[in-house]
Amino acid sequence: MTNDLEGLHRDLAGVGGWLTEEEGDTLYRLARACTGRGVIVEIGSFKGRSTICLARGSQAGRNLPVYAIDPHRGIGYEDFKRNLAEAGVEDMVTHIRQPSQEALPAIGEEPIELLFIDGNHKYPMVLEDFELFVPRLVDGGYLVMHDTTSPFPGSKRVAEERVYRSRRFRDVRFVFSTMTVGQKVAANTLADRIQARRALYTKKLFELAVPVREHIPASLERLGRRALRGRSRSGASATGAR
């Protein structure tokens, strides 16, 4: 796994975006652990940083297709295509160049095993993405949401209402610096809800310490990674990724 992640980090060098190393590693591990009960779907690709993480993880696992949903207006599309080609994952990825609210039919009837939501961060749009795509997520599949901290009140609100305080997710955790992860289940347990509330408190502590992501000091980022690495790894173990 260490060598795989080192290769991933090399692929990501020079690829624009705001995904932290810990967040990228989490996407890789979750994609690698997918069992084949559904496809991998990403809402919001930008220049392909998260797409590469998902596709690389899928390559290391069951080779499940990755659907990358992003209208990609302007020059960003060429950057996206070039970055995927340079990482050698372009054949793994089906790009759906539509707004997410119109893109679900392009996936067909495929269930979803791993869903990454990182599109428009306004509350009505995030909520619509959640309500459209999460019902297609299989029980035992994972939902990942990016930008769920204070600078992004829309996605933060949806994550807190629909994941951290939900009875439909277990293994809920916060990944430094803005990511929320949860495993969809038919019904969680009291222990699951207590864990989710602890993860929410952890997220809120980081929101107080680091109100603006672009100004995270390197020393604090290292501290955050150390503090949360155990949680992230334990979650990866729960999915079978080691």
Write the layout of secondary structure elements.
Elements: H1 2-12, H2 21-33, E1 39-43, H3 49-60, E2 66-69, H4 76-87, E3 93-96, H5 100-103, E4 112-117, H6 123-133, E5 137-145, H7 153-164, E6 169-175, E7 179-184, H8 190-209, H9 218-239
Helix pairs in contact: 1-3, 2-3, 2-9, 6-7
Q: What this model shows, in words?
A:
With 242 residues, the chain is of the alpha/beta class. It has a single domain (2-239), classed as Vaccinia Virus protein VP39 (Rossmann fold). The protein is 48% helix and 17% strand. It contains 9 helices and 7 strands, in the order ααβαβαβαβαβαββαα. The protein has helices at residues 2-12, 21-33, 49-60, 76-87, 100-103, 123-133, 153-164, 190-209, 218-239; strands at residues 39-43, 66-69, 93-96, 112-117, 137-145, 169-175, 179-184. A 7-stranded mixed beta sheet has the order 3-2-1-4-5-7-6, sandwiched between helices. Strand 1 (39-43), helix 3 (49-60) and strand 2 form a beta-alpha-beta unit. The protein is globular. The chain starts with a helix and ends with a helix. Residues 231-242 have low confidence and may be disordered.
What keyword list fits this structure?
single chain, 242 residues, alpha/beta, Rossmann fold, seven-stranded mixed β-sheet, 9 helices, globular, disordered C terminus
